[in-house]
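Anyone up for a design puzzle?
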């Protein structure tokens, strides 16, 4: 069935809100700017979403949904695969998502801005998106360490892997100037992701005897 006028207006407002919030952040974005770009009456936000805060929350949920559809984690969740392959798949997925410059990348930009400039919505992001990803990565690393690592060691390993990936996102302007070949196209991004995986696997392999010796 074709979308109704109300559905079209709702979706247009939501898509426009993602763009405006990603560009200005929650605090500096205005309802008037969103409505102007969406070509709707300024009262539409209250009608469809009740408030700017509620619209922002809906925009974040939609952003996460779109990014997860484009970059699903199913392959890395497959426990029948070797943990080395699962870690490589996880990192590849994450790095490609971070460096997405398409329209879907706007959703990623909104999420990154929320993390950098947190609002009350950050707790929702952590619960709905970050916790599941960290839990999956922790489970994979735990498998690589033979199930012997303590919780704090696993958490440090998770942060080390994610930190390498996030460097490509948050230092993008520097990488573009110093090492542009490292992210020049999808093939280069994939090679960089595989490098992070190999680097991480080597470090985890080095850590494993230390953990075993401490038991």
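Challenge accepted. My sequence:
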């Amino acid at each position: 069935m074709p979308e109704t006028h109300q559905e079209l207006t709702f979706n247009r407002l939501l898509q426009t809100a993602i763009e405006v919030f990603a560009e200005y952040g929650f605090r500096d974005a205005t309802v008037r700017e969103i409505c102007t770009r969406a070509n709707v009456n300024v009262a539409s936000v209250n009608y469809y979403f009740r408030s700017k805060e509620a619209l922002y929350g809906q925009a974040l949920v939609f952003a996460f949904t779109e990014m997860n559809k484009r970059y699903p984690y199913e392959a890395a969740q497959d426990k029948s695969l070797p943990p080395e392959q699962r870690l490589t798949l996880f990192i590849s997925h994450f790095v490609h998502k971070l460096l997405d410059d398409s329209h879907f990348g706007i959703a990623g930009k909104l999420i990154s801005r929320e993390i950098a400039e947190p609002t009350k919505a950050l707790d929702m992001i952590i619960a709905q998106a970050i916790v599941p990803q960290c839990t999956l990565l922790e489970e994979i690393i735990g498998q690589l360490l033979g199930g012997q690592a303590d919780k704090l060691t696993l958490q440090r390993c998770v942060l080390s892997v994610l930190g390498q990936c996030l460097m490509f996102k948050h230092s993008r302007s520097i990488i573009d100037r110093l090492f542009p070949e490292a992210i020049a196209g999808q093939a280069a991004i994939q090679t960089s992701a595989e490098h992070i995986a190999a680097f991480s696997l080597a470090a985890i392999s080095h850590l494993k005897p230390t953990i075993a010796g401490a038991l």
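A detail worth pointing out: The chain has a mean pLDDT of 90.
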